Amino acid sequence: MAGNSALESASKLGDLLAQLPLNQANQWSDIERTAQSLANDLRSKNVEQQTALGQTLLPQTLTSLLKSATSDVQSSGSTCKPAIFELLRVAANLCMDHDDNRGVLLDAGFPQTVVGLLESYAEPVKPAQQEPLPISIPDLKIVKTAIGFLLNASVGYGMSLKVYASTPPLMGTDAVKDRLVSLEAAMTILKLSSAIYPVGAWQRYDPASEEDSAEDPAEKWSLRSTLASWSWRAIEEIRGGGEDDGQRPPRAVFGPDALPLLISQLRAFVPPYPEPPSIFSTPSARRSLVQTDYDIYEQICGLIESLCLDVEDVRLSLARGLTFPDGEHGGVACLSELLTFVEKGDYPPYWSSESAGERAAKEKGFDLGKGALVKAIVEVAGEEKNTDTLWDDSEAEKPGGEFVNRMVEWIRTHKSLKETNRDDLIICATLSLGNICRRDAHSTAIVGPPISLGPDLAALLEPDTDIKVKHGVIGLLKHLAQSQGNRAALGQAGIIQKLAASQIWGEKADMVEIVQVAAIGVAKHMCNGDIDNTFSLVLPPADDSPLRQILELVKRSDSIAVKSEGTRVLVNAVKSLWSTDPKSLDEEKVKKREAAMKAVVTEPCVSALARLIGRSKRYPTLINEGVVALSLISTHPNGGTLVLDSLLNPLPAENIRTTSQPLSAVSATEASPVTGPRRALDMLITVLRDNNPNVPAEVRSNVCALLGHLGRKGVVAESRGVDLQRMEDSTRELIEGLARAEGPSNPKVVAAAKRALEAWQQPSAGMGVLLSLLSAAYYLPKLYFASVPATVAVKSAASSIAIERVSLRDFIRHRCPSLFKEFRPAWWLRSGHLQTAYCVLGDFSKIDKVEYDRKLLRTLDGGTIGIDLTPPAQERTLKEDTPIVVVLHGLTGGSHESYVRSILAPACTPVEQGGLGYRGIVVNFRGCAGVPVTSPQLYSALHTDDIRVAVMYISKMYPKAPLIGIGFSLGANVLTRYLAEEGEKSRLVAGCALACPWDVVASSDHLERHAFHRAVYSRGMAQNLKKVVTRHLDALSKFPDSPAWKAAQVAAAKKSMSLVEFDEIVTRVCGGSSPPFPFPSAYDYYRAASSHKVLGDIRVPFLALNSRDDPIVSSFPVGVADNGWVVLGLTQGGGHLGWFEAGKRFGELERWIRKPVLEWLRAVGEDLVPERERGQPMHEVEGFLKEVGRDDIGCKEVEGGGHVVGVEGEGGLFAGL
């Protein structure tokens, strides 16, 4: 009977829908009564009845009626509200536990209509309002029932929510949830819930504020509370994620706009608390409200943590809102309020009336919620893009800005944890500052005045300090200690002594290995080059020195990270002690140095170094550190004998876990060896014998130096002659082979091996000879090849027509001898700064004069590039197959630059006059070197289409000539990217990159991090770029609607700016074609432009040369992406595009770089045999030269060229770099 009744009611609802246009009296009352009867019938579980109703037109009828009712409410008032309530009940019960009915309701559009209904209620809600939204009981019932329907429409079987039932639903169906996500239902529900039931608002309830005094306040607050609980359950269901949702990540339903709604709710838990109104004065009257507040608190804390972990925009928005709350969060200072809550939030006093168990559970949950918010704050600070936002130097009274100042104050105020018991604030502050202080400038500011945080951090390092606090403090100290300028101040704060006193290296702390390793890192960095900190490590007031504690930890640990990093502390201590000139120390420190040296010239120390060597087969860097430290110790009286014993004695068996955290010196993916050689000497023999290309030549040469020095007379006690002979017998044959350069060899290793053999025949000369051995090859360029170099076809030396294949390594070894000889910077230009300065300021107008014919090429976007050809056509005639050097200049340079002419002058000089006899063509970027700007697009380190069309044009002019690319600085980056993008289709047969910036992000950070670099290099280069833009303002003004014109005006108006500021204004906007330009930020442009990421795609011989002391370039891809076509050479000196060495006459300078570059040009231009066609076929389309199959780029020659004398061009500090 019930089934028939329900079908009759459904049919009647259809009839009533059809009669709506008649607008009859009491029509909505009839709909209400019919829907109520149907809803009540559906409350009895009857699947057959549900199925039958779902197969009728009921879902469509309900949707149409709800739409009409919602529309009538807006025009005629509340007469429709009871009907709306009952219609929602019908739908909620119809889809309960019934997926088919959910589907038909979704198809009918009912969930969408419900969301629209909720949006109409949420429309008047103000952002983060504190007072409850005025709303009647009928409306509360409608909103609650609408949310109940959304729950029943999305939850899974068995746990659906009957309207008014208390059992919470668990899991939903994807179709409904996905539609609700697309409708932004979660945001609507959050907005409405937080306004209807602001957490804690019941404490401020005033009955006089009610619009309808006849309504029961207790019933109304019960409805508000239940609605809020259901709302959060609905939000949880829509987001999904976790075990109940197939382990999928939560759906992205919230962004930054949710933050003020969430965070403002936390104000209810910040004292002072108001006195509850009389209606809620008893515990029983407020019990459900208190529980709802607590439940929402838990949800909010978890959601904020999740958003900060998973959503970058949320992290960025929180940081921006600290400075601009009105623009970011509608007036709610979200991050500031989070910090206030973490600092001042406390248990509500009315929790004291709960039972002991309930109160304890709530207090524990409250603390866990705070912990989640601490994690959220740390994540915000850890977002790399927030570093500059959170660090603000604009207010002198708040060094570092509001966020940094607050973190510092937390540490200062609560460092006496026994008195304040605020571990949470210390953990939050130290972890957050640790994230922000990854830049040297920020790190230095934290340690230096006026902040001077070192002593405060030291005060926290007590034995009974909680390990989580120690983790934060030590992690921050590790970041701070990495900056060399901080080490003295941290030493004065007694950090090393406090670490030892805190017992972090003791056995009780072994369970927290990650903190022990971080503490080891602090000591390692602080002793690096700092003699006073080394004294603190080695010379304690008692026998239990920090160094002894670390070495004891190394012995008992089974972690490769602890063992190796701990021993590296000893390595740094040895280096600091031996490298410090005693003449620079006062008498007291000289005595301390002698005592400290004596303390490390002991069996435990040298044995630890021997074990480091023995266990590090996979890690050549660590072997090298152990060898260098033993070499230095061997110069001390009795040191040689101890070192010899450590090499010959059997190594103790070590149990090493292979899953411990990676070392900073090795790849994180490598496993640690569990078994090793029997003796440390066996590992050294393996290093000498093994021809593994991953073992740097420096390691082999240092091993030869150590063995050679030990064999000198007097270094090892005469009574140990037999043992010394054993060492020599074990290694002599290998060292002699290296000295004879048998097989593949490195000049540095050959030289070290010869000196070792000589040392065995000579009397001892002490430490001076050893250091001479260690640094003999210091000035030799270091070459980095792939593990398997590519093979190239070359003309045979035996026959002019024969072809042979050789590896790129052998190709360079035999044809570029200058790369295997010393480059010593001129003594008066010893540093990279001086080398770079002379490159910029030196007078090169009287040397390397080069004249050009200029041609202007118009590109498809209307832009213009200039190509300068030398020798000029009228000067002499060259063969059609004469090699051509295609040059790309530096940042704002051109064909006039001295470094360009230093290569082209000898390369293009006739053979009979001692040159190569080649052609040279310089590609001048848009707006540089007199090239006009004719479009709203400029140039950049990323844009390669201009070089692409220029090379097409050159190939068309000289189809038989091999083209060799060479790039300087920014031009080197463009050349690298071009070759990588073209791959095997490159029209260039080879490339050479000089002073390439590689990782543009790292180089930019390097320039901006150091005050001198920022003031001199960054601002100098930005000023030159500004000149380029200013010079062409009139031309850019012809494109008034373009972003380039707007950007140029902003840049021209600035008096001074850094390079990153210029790129933020101009380059990221108009530095190339779209896509990918414009970029969201300069750093997004830098990431895209970095060429080190594309090295693996190059497929032509490619030689790159950089200087380690380049003040502009900070990162070098020594792994060459394991691309056999790529070779990287690093010199110890040379600066940025300098490489000046002393000439033959006193005071004369010569550019060393031209020697290896000319050798390379000769090798690839004359000996290399191209093995494939270069580039795609070309044709002309409407006068433009294009590649067949590619219509987006092309060029044609236009008027405006001429004769150019390349001596000096447009000036400016660092112009051309």
Mean pLDDT: 87
The structural class is alpha/beta
Major beta sheet, specifics? 10 strands, mixed
Strand content: 5-15%
Instruction: State the end-to-end distance.
Output: 91 Å
Low-confidence stretches: 157-172, 659-674, 1210-1214
Count of beta strands: 16
The largest beta-sheet arranges its strands as 1-11-10-9-8-6-7-5-4-16
Query: What is the C-alpha radius of gyration, as a whole number of Å?
Result: 38 Å
Number of contiguous helices? 51
Can you tell me the overall shape? globular
Helix content: 40-55%
InterPro entries: AB_hydrolase_1, AB_hydrolase_4_sf, AB_hydrolase_fold, ARM-like, ARM-type_fold, Armadillo
Domain AB hydrolase-1: 883-1009
GO biological process, one term: medium-chain fatty acid biosynthetic process
GO molecular function: acetylesterase activity; monoacylglycerol lipase activity
